[in-house]
Amino acid sequence: MINTGIFARPKRILICSCLLVLLFAEPTATASGATYLEARELPPPPEATLDDEVNINVKNFGDYEIRTGVTDSKVAVIAIHGGKIEQGTSELAYALSARNHYNYYTYLGVRDKDNASLHIPSAQFEEPAALAMVAQSETTLSIHGCSGAGEFTYIGGLDTPLAGKVKDALTEYGFTVLDAPKHLAGLSPDNIVNRNQNGGGVQLEISKGLRAQFLDADSSQLTRYVAALSEALGNRP
């Protein structure tokens, strides 16, 4: 069983400007004495064929994987509870980044069961590659999953102008957007989505019912959702 405290924030964080160095080339000791697991290289995942320009780097740690796609964009799309933790979030993050050549990051639970225990709160998520990617971005979109059989999205984060554009675009495309409850609003400055160059990002909390639609083969819902987000982000480089 993984210790979800291994990414707890040290008193001082030195974020390397080079993402590739941060992708666990060597085990790294934390301030608490914990050591990051040694990764083994895997071939690119199947979804890499969606866009050959996004070169997916995969690190496997047994219980979880970290996948990144680094581009020259100032936009980062992240799914820190991906895979079997909050299903459908990695798929959406990749589809959006592949369409627009955005930077892509996901932390995926890959256990046969009990993936919920891999859930690290957003304000405590200190995985170095994720921190570095977000720190270098000007616009950050963090995709999460929440409970609910209905099809709806909560929108939060400290980038309120962009959050408004996302709400308008999703509504225009026929998706239901609701006011986020406080615990899902993503308003903490410590939340990883708000730790970019502008001090604020947008957090999406997507219901289980809607995420289930994203997992269908040739999902029109996923295509429309990506189109809405792409429109909201506009021509951001």
Q: What's the arrangement of secondary structure elements?
A:
Blueprint lengths: L18 H4 L17 E2 L14 E5 L3 E6 L5 E9 L5 H12 L2 E7 L18 H8 L3 E8 L6 E4 L3 H13 L4 E3 L22 E6 H7 L5 H14 L4
Parallel strand pairs: 4-5, 4-6, 6-9, 7-8
Antiparallel strand pairs: 1-2, 2-3, 3-5, 7-9
Helix pairs in contact: 2-6, 4-6
Order of helices and strands: HEEEEHEHEEHEEHH
Biggest β-sheet, characterized?
9 strands, mixed
Percent in helix: 10-25%
Count of distinct strands: 9
Keywords: Signal
Organism: Desulfitobacterium hafniense (strain DSM 10664 / DCB-2)
Signal peptide: 1-31
InterPro entries: Gamma_PGA_hydro, Gamma_PGA_hydro_sf
Could you walk me through the main structural features you see in this protein, from its secondary elements to its overall organization?
The chain is an alpha/beta fold. It has one domain: Aminopeptidase, CATH 3.40.630.100. 24% of the residues lie in helices and 21% in strands. The chain contains six helices and nine strands, in the order αββββαβαββαββαα. The protein has helices at 19-22, 89-100, 128-135, 160-172, 208-214, 220-233; strands spanning 40-41, 56-60, 64-69, 75-83, 103-109, 139-146, 153-156, 177-179, 202-207. Strands 1-2-3-5-4-6-9-7-8 form a nine-stranded mixed β-sheet, sandwiched between helices. Strand 4, helix 2 and strand 5 (103-109) form a beta-alpha-beta unit. It starts with 18 loop residues before the first helix and ends with a helix. Residues 1-6 and 10-51 have low confidence and may be disordered. Residues 1-31 form the signal peptide. It holds the Pfam family Gamma_PGA_hydro. This is Phage-related replication protein. It comes from Desulfitobacterium hafniense (strain DSM 10664 / DCB-2). InterPro entries: Gamma_PGA_hydro, Gamma_PGA_hydro_sf.
